[in-house]
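[SOLVED] Need 3D model of a two-part complex

Original post:
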Amino acid sequence: MSSYLEGIIMLSGINLIAVLGLSLLTGFAGLFSFGHAGFMAIGAYAAAFCTTTLHLPFLVGIAVGAAMAAGSSWLIGRATLKLKGDYFCIATLGFGEAIRLILDNFQALGGARGWPGIPPATTIWNILILDVIGVILLANIVRSRHGRNMIAVREEELAAQVAGINTFKYKMMALIISAAYAGVAGGLLAHYMTFIQPKMFSMTKSTELTIIVIFGGLGSISGSVLGAFVLTFLPELLRAVDKWRLVVYGLAVIGIMIGRPRGLMGGFELTPSSMRKYVADIKSARSAKAAQKAEDATLGKDGL
Amino acid sequence: MAQFLQQMVNGLSIGSVYALMAVGYSLVYSVMNFSNFAHGGVIMFGAYFGFYAITMLKLPFPAAFALAFIGTAVLAVIIERIAYKPLRERKAPFLYFIISAMGASIFLENIIIATIGPTFRTYPDVFGRTSIALGPVAIGRLDLIMFAVSAVCLTGLVLFVEKTKMGRAIQASAYNMKAAALMGVNTDRVVMIVFALGGMLAGIAGVFFGMKYTVYPQIGNITTKSFVAAVFGGLGSLPGAVLGSVLLGIIETLVAGYLSSQFRDLIAFVILIGVLIFRPTGIMGKTTEDKA
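Solution:
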């Protein structure tokens, strides 16, 4: 495999982990975050601190990064999850920007110039393994009672509350899990790039993650997987028309919202059983058609 | 003391331009109930319209200024028609509006980068660099004009919303769009007017920001400050947006003057998180409750 292709696959895999977390928050719990790059930044810097300064093993660094991101999301959630509508969204925006600006001014971690010399511990294999673990974990969360409660909160918060679901608890749970995913992605990114800079975790990054989730389809894990790979590869394929890439991207986002708001796979999952069902549907449709044809033929004969 | 007064004056002038942005954003929020993230793109276009009207068309400042804000008003209405109206007709949840707004914002920023390029451009010196001495305080001409024009625009907006029939229709739609429509208010028209007004104020703010700093494709990012100001003052409340903006402007200049200019941007987000924790409805906001 060429190193260029390998690089893009690795980036897709890292993006995928952050996207999976955001997919739980936005797609299943119905909360909208503009600050996930902030959680990624916390994960990246915490993991880099563990491996580079404290010389701890790579996996410990990743775990600490995830825990730090989850902890900070708990603080943010406690303050803002009780608010309605756009407040949470604006709060996460403020949080993400604040993290970036704090890191910009924090000279001990390299400040705005960035932090070089992080060991290149991320490989394509540990990314792919974490991707698989991430997908299986998320699929199990979504199918569990907790996941169903989150979906209930997304669909109709008031009704969910009346039905006895502690809406605050489930929103918080979704937020913490998604922040932990973002933290893992940040840690992997730091050890892939071997250099991190606050600029890498700007609001643009948060927006990019959200757009992948939307593009893949809200409430679909396989959509998120597909979205992460398609939207990380697409810019590479469009290198030739580099300048117009994001222009098209912006229009495409509006187009999806107007034309196909459910995204690529909204509400549909690509699993072995759904595939079997799909094949069976085609088969039964075909046999129904054949039966119809035969019937038409006999009718035709009778008619004659 | 003189230095403190000087900082206050500077803060007031920058705060008044924040207010122009925050009011447009708040106006849209009050009627449509979603954060219009494309507002920054409209502000950026205002800065470019004004810049090219002065440098290429060689228009005198008032004409260039008018061209800029008429241009952005039209632009804001076009964005509404293309990106939001289909969603409005489908009664889509607010999430879709935000995402559509994000798409519009990405489009606006990058169409400028693709066509004009990412370079920084500086407005020609229109008002002169001399400042007016007022006792111990020196007020720059641009600062004075910024403050005066903003004050006139905001007063005009308040009069429009309070005194005219259309203004009352806007208030009614902000209170309850469905009920307003049943009472014979043309809500589609109201939404258009709201976007046109917001776009106009955004254009004015864009020209001023371009003149005070420079013109570049990411200048719209400054609107995150106006989101903060609007939350600080109380989301959806016009007087709140003005108060929040002016306070934010003053606090920012004081922080930059007495602590460090590096903390200038940070303080806005510290305020935001503080407000959200301790008084989420802002200074003048009404409590939001689910209408079930």
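Edit: The radius of gyration of chain B is 19 Å.
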